[in-house]
Amino acid sequence: MVQSMRETERKYEVPSPADTSWLPELERVDGVAAVVDRSPEELDAVYYDTDDLRLSGSSAVLRRRTGGTDAGWHLKLPLSGDSREEIRSALTDTVPDALLDLTRSRTRGAELTPVVRIRSTREVRHLVDADGTTRAELCVDSVRAQSLRADGRHAAWNELEVELAEDADPALLDAVEKKLRKKGIARAHSPSKLVRALDETVTTTAGAPGGSAGPDPGQAGAQVLAYVRKQIRALTELDPAVRRDRPDSVHRMRVACRRLRSCLRSYRSVLDREVTDSVRGELKWLAGELGAERDQEVLMERLSGEIAALPEELVLGPVDARLRVWNVVDSTESHLRSLDALGSRRYLDLLDSLAVLLEHPPLRAKAARAAKDAEKVMAKAVLKEYGRLATRMTDALELSPGPERDVALHEARKAAKKVRYATEVARPALGKPARSLGKRVKAVQKVLGDHQDSVVARGALRDLAVAAQTAGEAGFTWGLLYGTEQARAENRERELPSVWEPASDPGPREKLRR
């Protein structure tokens, strides 16, 4: 059993806690009515990581802590700004399986062992409002760190933490910091105790996938690798959310797979396909395994919305109940399929391959060309993907309505995504023309996406109607929804030529060629 909470805090360098004359009068901060002293705490935490420090290298923290009010295992994952997600589990001798699973995308299955022990003597003060509610906790720590590696080096320092209560206004942190600055108290250089302890006691360099120095920033290789690195980071960081079935997490992780796979395909002139094609194949597998869960999410949202929009007199039979049962069964099965994929050796091997791709990028000669030539390399890749899209659109629009055209439009939709992703990679080099083309193609993709969703929805509605009929229920509402979806698809097909027209305008493409 784990608990999750959002932790928002800032750290500061401070003099000795024995003399707190440097501490400002925080009662004068807006929203703070009093500063309440709490009992001192003795905290003892052992931090775990891989031999090459993959967790800390990806801004994650895993510790086993005793003392204080929150003894137990704590896994901290980065969020935006000053915030992190803290996931807690009960105190046990070994790392809980639930937390091991949530570190998997970062450790890639490598063993977790103790690396640093940090003991803190903590003076605690609560900043409370007029109602006596704690709005923030202020902790002055005297810290002693010891490496648990062979060298066993030590370090010591003092620091101040200001942690916001979960429902408090983030502006409170700014107000407190303003008071601290007037007293000469500056932000800590290290984002966490662990980072500082590793810097001062451990000689091994953190081993998160970061890559070598690589090509110069203006070169095509650097721009492609920057995009690849971003998508790998997204995939890694979304893994824990997918495992916990967080909203939209499967969709975002699947998109990261697609973006990465598309980039490796579009920029074969930059990264050697003899290396990347096998990676692309494994990304296709992962996106496919996640696809069942994502497709179910989209279907349920679409169908439940359509049923809710119907007048009450047109909803005949236990329509809502049948839809809910259908969703529970299918969503459970599809989520288990996602979990099986993330728990497989094949997935860990893929993560290893992505780490190697960054550490030893298979750059081709074109990757190291000067910035001016890089523009040509990027433009050529975008235009090549656009050419494939144009061919698919022409073929699809010439077909008569029906299943064959549905398939062709779906293929055109996938081609449109590839163009969009190629323009995303190229934006640093090509600027506005790439953004313009990407925006126009996105409009096409949106229409094609709604059309494909209608095709899938009609299949599900037919299955639901058959199940209802078999159970002796009225099938009227399911047929009505089927007809609505069919009309919606026909509207999208009629709309498509007018949306494709600006995307087929040669203007943005001519600017790319310059």
What does this structure look like?
The protein is α+β, with helices and mostly antiparallel strands. The protein contains 14 helices and nine strands. The chain has helices at 54-57, 97-107, 171-182, 193-201, 220-243, 249-266, 273-309, 319-342, 345-359, 371-398, 403-430, 432-470, 476-503, 506-513; strands spanning 2-13, 34-37, 41-49, 61-66, 72-78, 83-89, 113-128, 134-147, 154-164. It has an eight-stranded antiparallel beta barrel. β5 (72-78) and β6 (83-89) form a beta hairpin. α5 runs antiparallel to α6, α6 runs antiparallel to α7 and α11 (403-430) runs antiparallel to α12. The longest helix is centred in the C-terminal third of the chain and has 39 residues, at 432-470. The radius of gyration is 28 Å and the shape is globular. Mean pLDDT is 93; it is low at 205-212.
Oligomer: single chain
How many helices in DSSP terms? Answer: 14
- Low-confidence parts, pLDDT < 50 over ≥5 residues? 205-212
Determine the structural class based on helices, strands and strand pairing.
alpha+beta
Mean pLDDT metric? 93
Largest sheet: 8 strands, antiparallel, barrel
**Beta-strand proportion:** 15-25%
N- and C-termini, Cα separation? 59 Å
Radius of gyration: 28 Å
The rough form would be described as: globular
Order of helices and strands: EEEHEEEHEEEHHHHHHHHHHHH
- What is the spatial order of strands in the main beta sheet? 1-6-5-4-3-7-8-9
| Overall number of strands | 9
**How helical, in percent, are the residues?**
55-70%
Give a concise summary.
This protein has 514 residues and is α+β, with helices and mostly antiparallel strands. 55% of the residues lie in helices and 17% in strands.
